[in-house]
Backbone:
């Protein structure tokens, strides 16, 4: 239980306020923002506040203030307001108790280093932001501003009028420390209850004495019955920690129960029967040329990079946390997936970050609520987008990992629950200390060492929560704040030092389920573990034992360290400022045992914990819709139509994101996120990860969520083809390319949704097998539904369109041959490679026209596609291609426009030259999303060699680039490159 | 004899590997050392001729960019560092490293007042982290690191690079020939504070300054991120042009020149 004491209490806390006197960008930006949002604010002045909850003398306090102040531009005040006039309201935003406060952590460390002293557990530092608002504003408006700036889930807001401020002589000193009532024991949970009560236990959690529930266990009837039977055999009831532990380990999030289930008459299920099967078949087929090294079994998947190195890949989602706290959700998402790299084999180094944000229409401000009383409003798509952009910015930039690859995708159905994809590519030597770097095994007798951050209430029930739809009961404690610098220290100490000194036998990430999952998972490697919870370092005292065990507090990893290396390991961590704690022992007892104050509070068979979960059997149906075809007339002004298309959020420039993400740190950037003089967002990136080798990593992705409204089989096929095609267009290598599948489904207990899922998985098998591109890692998130109320209080459910993100990664031999999308020189020839069909169903054009989506979803012809891709690889190798783009959303016309904008060159195009089949309308020709096509430009003198390279596939020269910046598709479109560029960059211009 | 370069790391510094690699590639012998280890044995500084403060996010920019780590350095190895700074040795601070040098007072160190904090690198004027390629022009004759360099196409990536100082200090820095790089437009004309040519709002387009001796350089752009030709923004266009002239793209990037200058200072 939390309470929020008002200081001063016990210790005399001090308050240091710092004002910036010149070039105060923060205040200027805030003032502009508030004015833009129509608050009658003349100025907003931002003051940094440090609350020092420790006794210091006046000269000491002055020294402290000095180290936080830049004397060139700032001034400070101690225990008195730095400003006391020129404002109507003072608004302070600080953190709630227990919320990670990174600046305060650094500040405390700086003070400790300054005086060579240590803070006790009762002493602390806290930061907050004080804003002096000037203008004719009312108290309500001040409150509204507070709500707009703060997230009440994690922050406190304190407002004082100028008069109040004067009476009180400033703001209050607030020390937001967590005070928990001691409850340091495990409770027995009675399972001999009515079936109704049992189901309630599974759905809402363990009943506390005060009648409240602890939050979702997400255990269904079958699982509960199995648990009940197990404890009948053990002759007792489970403890709360045991039940919580089972709930974490058995969660959909951790065990992927749906992908593991028998589905209809398919005994193997979706994962073994489709995804893994594809990889196994491809590896066998490739024989000697198999490049897979470690697939599906580790935190990431790994393939060969060269004779000495392995490249790893992993993509994750952080959807539910991002819906509640977008910044926190996204930052913990990105640093979390970094740990999946650090936790690969003996520890890989993250070298590329990737992101993908699927959100609602950013212009949509219509409120939806989580509760019937309409008090708990869901964040707007715009607020979510801004937050997640900021989260990946902080997490990626501060970690020193380049972020060259990413995408945005908008659809109204992401309004309730956004999909926030984050991914990381890593690099690891193939051998370490003479051993295979992928092999790791905790051995009997190894110590269980937890490293990184401390454990708090944050992220309780993350795993079980994400296995449930987002509703009123969603726990606020599922919110986590990231601390990239703590993780950076941890990461450096592990992968740059401890790994190469061979100080541990195994390592894994503490992600979903916290210790309960990471320790138990590693204990499988040797057959048991004994953990002493008293040893686990906590953020604040008196945390319930079950919470310690399942907390998802961030920036932690678990290692198995042989006893003889513990001292060396601990000394290394200490010297690098990384907290490391010995919390137990790995053994071969066959049981997972947890002790508290010498008492066993958990004692469970390893087999039951990991394999006791009853396998589900799922039934599916899939009725493909027969949608009416749209019947709008062909627009008379196709120029205007193209201009509108370029403004579609799914097609438009998101340079504002690319520019704020560091994409050249580590020095490997080759093809970055913005290409050509006109700075167009590309679909693929190329990175040269090693200083001394010209080999490159090509990354891309494909997704077509709206195609699911017609047929999820073809949706998946197109996603795969696009991920591969984009990759090839940048110089990627079909013979050395791996894929990842990230399924984000909805209502996955519905047979129709499962039918859609099965069809998509079938396509995953069929198309990966045809292309010879194995899956090396994947993840699923099955319940992306929002259940709440509209502004009228009417119950509403918003489910995401079934979404499959396919990521591609290939290794190219020489980055000098990489291809960018920008047209290069006037007089170059423009070609379209591939045939165009009238395939516009559920595509961008039909969606823009706002009528029916039709049924003409693009279908992939792999035989033709492979021939095309091979010819393309050959042409690139022969340096025949000057620029290339693969048409995706909106088809040929937007892709041509992007090439022109990027190259700042005109184009003269004859549309009749485009090879087309059954296309009856010009708008269809321009905007069809037929797959497996490229648009390339070449130097005119390469025409002969180029055409001979492509002799076995359909292609046509359709025009030329021109010096004059006019963009003309004969008889259909006439505009200028400048015009196109303005439309392309309009949508997010002021973001 | 190869000059030895000490590359500081730890606490969120993150460009130490590429910085070490560029020094090595130009003939130095680079060693990456954790600041914690240097604090334990400050005498180790004597073994090196070059000291590099790489880019990164030391302490996550908490309490000000490059501030917390500068405090840590001052609290623990201030004397040793000031001695190093005044010997015939070289120091470079890149990006976050420049912020550290500024906070440590190693630049501009007007009138050899090493340790005095006179300049600040503030939040970018457009209030956002910015990653892009820009152009700079050399404007100091005394800076050892920028010898024989006229201009550079070079990347920046920072949230706090807005150079500021009081009028008097600026006058002195200019009079002493201590402005090493200024942001320019593509054609070499002054950026005049215009975004994006001047990417952060820096006073007088200042991108880099050095100490009075020209041995210590603090710069916001990242020369180590332009170590090969394919790093450069727009290299694919350059390559196409060369191909059509029957030539091929070179391997090395122009950013290496600074590190070559540092090595040459000790070897020639």
Residues:
């Amino acid at each position: 239980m939390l309470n929020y004491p008002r200081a001063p209490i016990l210790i005399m806390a001090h308050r240091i306020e710092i004002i910036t006197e010149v070039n105060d960008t923060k205040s200027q930006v805030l003032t502009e923002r508030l004015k833009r949002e129509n608050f009658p604010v003349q100025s907003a002045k931002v003051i940094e506040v440090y609350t020092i909850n420790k006794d210091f003398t006046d000269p000491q306090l002055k020294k402290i203030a000095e180290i936080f102040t830049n004397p060139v531009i700032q001034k400070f005040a101690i225990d008195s307001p730095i400003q006391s006039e020129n404002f109507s309201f003072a608004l302070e935003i600080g953190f709630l108790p227990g919320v990670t406060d990174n600046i305060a952590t650094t500040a405390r460390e700086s003070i400790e280093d300054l005086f060579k002293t240590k803070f006790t557990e009762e002493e602390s530092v806290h930061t907050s932001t004080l804003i002096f608002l000037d203008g004719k504003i009312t108290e309500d408006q001040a409150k509204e501003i507070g709500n707009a700036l703060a997230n009440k889930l994690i922050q406190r807001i304190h407002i004082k009028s100028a008069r109040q401020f004067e009476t009180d002589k400033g703001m209050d000193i607030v020390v937001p420390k967590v005070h928990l009532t001691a409850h340091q024991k495990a409770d027995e949970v009675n399972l001999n209850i009515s079936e109704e009560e049992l189901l309630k236990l599974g759905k809402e959690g363990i009943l506390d004495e005060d009648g409240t529930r602890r939050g979702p266990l997400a255990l269904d009837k079958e699982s509960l019955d199995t648990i009940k039977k197990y404890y009948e055999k053990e002759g007792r009831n489970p403890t709360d920690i045991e039940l919580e532990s089972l709930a974490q380990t058995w969660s959909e999030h951790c065990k992927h129960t749906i992908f593991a289930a028998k589905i209809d008459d398919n005994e193997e299920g979706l994962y073994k029967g489709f995804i893994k099967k594809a990889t196994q078949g491809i590896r066998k087929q490739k024989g000697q040329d198999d490049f897979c090294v470690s697939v599906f079994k580790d935190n990431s998947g790994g393939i060969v990079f060269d004779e000495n190195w392995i490249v790893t890949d992993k993509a994750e989602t952080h959807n539910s946390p991002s819906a509640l706290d977008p910044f926190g959700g996204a930052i913990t998402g990105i640093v979390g997936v970094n740990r999946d790299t650090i936790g690969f084999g003996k520890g890989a180094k993250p070298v590329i970050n990737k992101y993908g944000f699927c959100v609602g229409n950013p212009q949509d401000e219509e409120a939806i609520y989580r509760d019937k009383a309409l008090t708990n409003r869901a964040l707007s798509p715009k607020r979510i987008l801004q937050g997640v952009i900021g989260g990946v910015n902080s997490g990626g930039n501060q970690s020193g990992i380049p972020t060259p690859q990413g995408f945005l995708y908008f659809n109204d159905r992401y309004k309730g629950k956004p999909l926030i994809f984050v991914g990381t590519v890593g690099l690891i030597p193939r051998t370490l200390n003479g051993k295979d770097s992928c092999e790791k095994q905790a051995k009997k007798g190894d110590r269980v060492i937890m490293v990184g951050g401390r454990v708090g209430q944050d992220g309780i029930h993350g795993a079980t929560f994400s296995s449930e739809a987002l509703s009123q009961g969603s726990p606020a404690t599922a919110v986590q704040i990231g601390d990239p610098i703590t993780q950076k220290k941890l990461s450096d100490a592990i992968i740059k030092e401890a790994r190469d000194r061979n100080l541990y036998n195994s390592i894994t990430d503490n992600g979903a389920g916290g210790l309960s999952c990471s320790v138990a998972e590693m204990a499988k490697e040797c057959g048991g573990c004994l953990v002493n919870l008293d040893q686990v370092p906590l953020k604040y005292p008196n945390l319930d034992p079950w919470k310690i065990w399942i907390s998802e507090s961030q920036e932690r990893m678990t290692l198995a360290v042989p006893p003889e290396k513990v001292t060396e390991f601990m000394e290394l961590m200490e010297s690098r400022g990384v907290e490391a704690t010995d919390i137990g022992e790995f053994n071969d007892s066959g049981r997972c045992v947890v002790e508290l104050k010498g008492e066993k509070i958990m004692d469970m068979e390893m087999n039951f914990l990991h394999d006791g979960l009853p396998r589900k059997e799922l039934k599916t149906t899939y009725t493909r819709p027969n949608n009416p075809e749209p019947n709008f007339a062909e627009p008379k002004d196709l120029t205007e139509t193209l201009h509108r298309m370029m403004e579609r959020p799914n097609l438009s420039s998101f340079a504002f994101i690319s520019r704020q993400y560091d994409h050249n740190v580590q020095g490997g950037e080759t093809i970055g996120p913005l290409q050509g003089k006109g700075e167009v967002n590309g679909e693929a990136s190329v990175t040269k990860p090693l200083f001394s080798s010209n080999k490159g990593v090509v990354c891309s992705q494909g997704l077509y969520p709206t195609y699911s409204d017609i047929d999820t089989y073809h949706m998946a096929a197109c996603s795969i083809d696009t991920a591969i095609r984009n990759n090839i267009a940048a110089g990627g290598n079909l013979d050395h390319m791996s894929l990842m599948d990230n399924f984000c489904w909805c209502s996955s207990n519905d047979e129709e949704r499962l039918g859609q899922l099965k069809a998509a998985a079938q396509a995953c098998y069929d198309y990966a097998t045809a292309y010879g591109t194995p899956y090396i890692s994947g993840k699923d998130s099955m319940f992306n539904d929002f259940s709440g109320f509209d502004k009228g209080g009417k119950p509403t459910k918003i489910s995401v369109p079934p979404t499959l993100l396919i990521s591609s990664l290939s290794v190219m031999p020489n980055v000098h041959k990489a291809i960018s999308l920008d047209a290069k020189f006037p007089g170059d020839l423009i070609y379209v490679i591939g045939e165009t069909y009238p395939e516009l169903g559920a595509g961008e054009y039909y969606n823009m026209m706002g009528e029916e989506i039709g049924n003409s979803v693009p279908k992939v012809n792999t035989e033709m596609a492979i021939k095309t891709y091979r010819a393309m690889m050959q042409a690139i190798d022969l340096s025949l291609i000057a620029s290339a783009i693969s048409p995706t959303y909106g088809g040929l016309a937007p892709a041509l426009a992007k090439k022109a904008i990027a190259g700042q060159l005109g184009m003269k195009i004859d549309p009749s030259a485009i090879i087309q089949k059954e296309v009856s309308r010009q708008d269809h020709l321009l905007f069809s999303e037929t797959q497996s096509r490229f648009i390339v430009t070449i130097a005119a003198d390469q025409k002969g060699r180029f055409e001979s390279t492509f002799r076995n596939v359909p292609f046509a020269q359709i025009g030329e680039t021109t010096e004059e910046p006019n963009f003309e598709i004969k008889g259909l479109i006439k505009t200028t490159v400048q015009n196109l560029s303005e439309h392309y960059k309009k949508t997010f211009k002021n973001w | 004899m190869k000059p030895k370069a000490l590359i500081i790391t730890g606490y969120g510094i993150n460009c130490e590997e590429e910085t070490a690699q560029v020094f090595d590639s130009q003939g130095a012998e680079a060693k990456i050392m954790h600041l914690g280890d240097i604090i334990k044995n400050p005498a180790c500084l004597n073994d090196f001729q070059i000291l590099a403060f790489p880019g990164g996010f030391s302490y996550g920019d908490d309490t000000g960019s490059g501030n917390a780590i500068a405090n840590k350095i001052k609290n623990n190895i201030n004397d040793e560092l000031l001695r190093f700074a005044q010997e015939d040795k070289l120091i470079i601070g890149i990006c976050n490293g420049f912020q550290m040098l500024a906070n440590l007072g190693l630049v501009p160190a007007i009138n050899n007042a090493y340790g005095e904090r006179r300049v600040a690198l503030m939040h970018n004027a457009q209030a956002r982290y910015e990653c892009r390629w820009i152009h700079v022009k050399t404007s100091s004759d005394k800076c050892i690191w920028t010898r024989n360099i006229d201009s550079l196409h070079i990347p920046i990536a920072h949230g706090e690079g807005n150079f500021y100082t009081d009028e008097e200090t600026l006058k002195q820095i200019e009079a002493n020939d201590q402005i090493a790089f200024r942001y320019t437009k593509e054609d070499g004309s002054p950026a005049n504070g215009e975004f994006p040519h001047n990417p952060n709002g820096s006073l007088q387009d200042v991108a880099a300054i050095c100490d009075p001796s020209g041995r210590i350089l603090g710069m916001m752009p990242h020369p180590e991120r332009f170590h090969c030709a394919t790093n450069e923004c727009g290299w694919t266009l350059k390559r196409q042009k060369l191909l059509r002239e029957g030539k091929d793209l070179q391997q090395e990037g122009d950013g290496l020149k600074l590190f070559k200058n540092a090595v040459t200072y000790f070897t020639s």
